[in-house]
Write a structure and sequence with these properties.
Strand content: 15-25%
CATH superfamily of the largest domain: Type I PLP-dependent aspartate aminotransferase-like (Major domain)
Helix content: 25-40%
Order of helices and strands: HEHHEHEHEEHEEHEHHHEEHEEH
Number of domains: 2
Radius of gyration: 20 Å
CATH topology of the largest domain: Aspartate Aminotransferase, domain 2
Structural class: alpha/beta
CATH class of the largest domain: Alpha Beta
Strand order of the largest sheet: 2-8-7-6-5-3-4
Largest sheet: 7 strands, mixed
CATH architecture of the largest domain: 3-Layer(aba) Sandwich
Number of strands: 12
């Protein structure tokens, strides 16, 4: 049974032990930047007062050209999935896999049955794969763990009367210019996170963009003061033109390092899912590769906890050139020693 075989609660941080080189967690390295860390530290001076969302909410609305009523700030994207699962009453919920497992986990925890649309091959999505009677569809873009960026027009093709379409754009700011983002389209529900680009996993900061009526329902289901004052400060600061320009510049640098990593892995005969656009690559390697790397102090994310993937898959975060060289050297030594069997094609 899929629920037994796939551990929906497994995340990349569980792979990383003390002193290991981390290719498992897909958060930008060297973050948060000092200007943002200083701003968060300064916000602690206001902790005696209850959090006030108004400025941060308005900043997000301005960034995406949306009315404030179409914005809900959340304690990370994970809270958004829980709120959606509690508020929505789908007759047929569909989650497109492989993808981040929290959407399905949240739906099941709220008592919903979940159908899966499982992609394979190059993991590209077509709207026709979703059953016509699905009234809730959840998909990531770019998708974790495949790193595939789906065309916005294909996601818009999911829209139907009575259907809610939820697009997780936690990694969209990995894409320079965000050309396929649907954050401006009020017909869909779009989730964003500060975790990946700004390195704020511990702060828990994200937001929902969606129709005003649904946002109001989600807000009523949300605990009071769910987003802390430091998180609000970070949300407001990262919505500025300065921060957006910095994130876009990083996305350009990321693309170069991702290409370096992809070329290095392909040179070893490993299959890398093509057209990657996020901060990681999905790689098909020999069964036992993850464990063999772990013995050498290198952590990568196991793939078999994602529905649609098996034990031959690993997710590898994009790092700097020196780290990439360390990983490819280790993989080469494993191949030469026959500790793994590479799979190409």
């Amino acid at each position: 049974m899929d629920l037994v075989r796939h551990d929906l609660g497994h995340h990349g941080d569980a792979e990383v032990g003390a002193g290991m080189v981390d290719f498992a967690v897909n958060v930008r390295a060297g973050t948060p930047p000092e200007w943002l860390a200083e701003l968060v530290r300064a916000s602690v001076a206001d902790l005696a007062a209850y959090p006030d969302q108004r400025r941060a909410r308005a900043a997000v609305a301005r960034r995406h050209g949306r009315p404030v009523a179409e914005v809900l700030l959340t304690s990370g994207a994970a809270e958004a999935f829980v709120l959606l699962a509690r508020v929505l009453r789908p007759r047929r919920a569909v989650v497109v896999h492989p993808q981040f497992t929290e959407p399905e986990a949240a739906l099941r925890a709220a008592g919903h049955e979940v159908d899966r649309v499982v992609l394979d091959g190059d993991f590209r999505f077509t709207a026709s794969a979703v059953p016509e009677d699905a009234d809730l569809v959840m998909i990531g873009n770019p998708t974790n763990p495949t790193s595939v960026l789906h065309p916005a027009e294909e996601l818009r093709a999911l829209l139907r009367e009575g259907r809610t379409v939820v697009v997780d754009e936690a990694f969209m700011d990995c894409v320079p210019g965000e050309p396929e983002s649907l954050a401006h389209d009020a017909r869909l529900v779009v989730l964003r996170s500060l975790t990946k680009t700004w390195g704020l996993a511990g702060l828990r900061a994200g937001y929902v963009l969606g129709p005003a009526g649904l946002v109001a329902e989600l807000e009523r289901a949300q605990p009071l003061w769910a987003v802390s004052t430091p998180a609000l400060a970070a949300i407001e600061a990262t919505a500025t033109d300065r921060a957006l320009a910095e994130a876009d510049a990083w996305a350009g640098e990321l693309a170069l390092e991702r290409t370096r990593l992809e070329e290095g892995l392909r040179a070893l005969g490993l299959h890398v899912v093509p057209a990657a656009r996020a901060s990681f690559l999905l790689v098909r390697a020999g069964i036992g590769t993850r464990e063999a790397l772990r013995e050498r102090g290198i952590a990568v994310r196991r793939g078999d906890t994602f529905p649609g993937l098996g034990p031959e898959w690993i997710r590898v975060a994009v790092r700097d050139a020196a780290s990439t060289a360390l990983l490819t050297t280790a993989l080469h030594s494993l191949s030469v020693s026959s500790d793994i069997v590479t799979i190409s094609g």
